[in-house]
Predict the structure.
Amino acid sequence: MTEKKKIGRNQKDTNDDMINLVDNLNRDDDLKYNRRAFLKSAVGASVALGIATLPFSLKAMLGAEEKAVADSNRVKIADLADVPKGSSVTFHYPTEEDGALLVHSKEGKLAAYNNACTHLKCPVFYEEKKDILLCPCHKGSFDIGTGHPISGPPQRELPLIELEVEAGVVYAVGRKYRHG
Ligand code: FES
């Protein structure tokens, strides 16, 4: 009888132990899963935040890049010796899509302009005999010293490219739109 009771108690204790063990395991699992869930959501939030701020970061980087390019946009056009008086050379400025013309006038003045006619974008050229910039499409012409239209359909002047000459080399260093 006593033995039976003892066995019964032992069995109950074992059951209780098992229940406690399962509870502890469940609790451990809960903690583990909660930790995992927390880590997952923390990582997810970091990634989401990173992605969300990416455009701003890129914009800031690109902005700095654009500013740097704009600030140091000094481009060699030609050696002055290769552009004698009464001649011209074509180049691109400020980008490869922007055609331009450097003219060394008969009087010895240097001037440069983007060469897309302000009428319908035909490329103007240096007409040496008249010392003007001439557009072949509708015979528009521009003053070589100012870029102002002087005849034909164009109403606006050509964008002026600022120049510097250093050690016999002509550089483009900036561009000005002078409308009106
Ligand atoms: S495109 Fe130059 S005059 Fe018309």
About this structure: The CA atoms of residues 22 and 28 lie 10 Å apart. The chain has one helix and ten strands. The first helix runs from residue 2 to 71.
